[in-house]
Amino acid sequence: MTDKSSQVKATDEVDVALVGAGIMSATLGAMLRExxxxxxxxxxxxxxxxxxxxxxxxxxxxxxxxxxxELNYTPEKNGxxxxxxxxxxxxxxxxxxxxxxxxxxxxxxxxxxxxxxPVPHLSLAQGQTQVDYLRRRYEALRTQTLFPGMEFxxxxxxxxxxxxxxxxxxxxxxxxxxxxxxxxxxDVNFGALTRQFLTAAQAAGTEIRYGNExxxxxRVGTKWKVTSKNLHTGDLSSVTARFxxxxxxxxxxGLLRKARVPEVNGYAGFPVSGLWLRSTNKELIESxxxxxxxxAQVGTPPMSTPHLDTRVIDGERGLLFGPYGGWSPxxxxxxxxxxxxxxxxxxNIPSYLGVAVTEFNLxxxxxxxxxxxxxxxxxxxxxxxxxxxxxxxETVIAGQRVQVIKxxxxxxxxxxxxxxxxxxxYGGSIAGLxxxxxxxxxAPAAMxxxxxRCFGERMIDWGPKLYEMIPSYGTKLNDDPKLFNELWDxxxxxxxxxx
Length: 499
Hints:
Helix content is about 30%, strand content about 30%. The protein is α+β, with helices and mostly antiparallel strands and about 500 residues long. The protein is globular.
């Protein structure tokens, strides 16, 4: 008798296969439907619904990373504030706003309030050294086109008026505090955004195969054979595709390896999990309206940057504090405990060993975080909310992220990357996205880069449509105040962000 799960059924041929039903696949699929409406698309998702991993609102920061408040994007180097990363990320977030606005105009996205809402973005400084840094950061950023209307407050009374929850019980005479930031920040529910994109995709004819895990990617001539396993029945099926995008989060690296993409040789992944403290007290939730980012402790990685975070999820306000680092060998929240061990290959062992030697601070940070109990986490919270009571908070598990380890030359061998990396191979017929923050916030910009790298010969023909979707395409808005102001007003209206 033949094992049913071993029978592979050749079923379909499509132009585009998208692996993973998260924000990245949803964004690329939407772009390609605009650029090439005749192309057929199919999406594979191992879980039974979209956006349940990194795109889930409870699994990511939801900040709409635009570098308005994230202090790790403006490091101090030789006494000078380096703005390059902040400006670059903000430019990319403006691309997101434009693309989402265009999709609202075209009826692809429905009610913007389901996925984006105005929430101020503020940066917190505690102690004179941090306050001095924050003031210099403010002076440097406020002259940039992309950062209009920035404020800086170091007066205790004004601080208390703006941030009452963070002021109650605080001894302003003991420690100097300040904040800077913007009232024009946003909170983004990437789960809701993904669902809206995929609802439109299905209406346009895209087949989404939930409960189907891609287990094979093989080059056949000029096309790809995508083999998936139905996790409910065990059936295997194959689809032939001209182009494959691997947007599978922590599993992307493994799938690119299955496809034998040479560009990922030597790459490795380091899994990091996270925890939040979530408020259960509605009075506290309503008393705070801001995303407040502080500074990571000296010697800790960027991922440790603490923040007190107002969220808007499914129409309900929430309040989170964290993240607290954790560790699990899984590469996805709903992955396998063997993920890390199965990812080790002869070509990436030097990368792992190199990071093990050079990233002692990360190891130390994770060990300390894992050792913390609930009471210790509340003590950390009290540096932001001095009056915090344990009974008003609960611990929730955040998403699983895989930090990319890039191969490098001796003596380092491997370099831990905290950003987002795009990898493509075989003449641009396959591509995948690796890494984490700023991730979802800059999905349209990342997918634009993918289009340029994988479909370069079509970019001239696509030009008019690209400019329609993203009017600033090819322009640095930070260098063009007039265009920035026009597009800012346009996106504010389309996304219903005007107060």
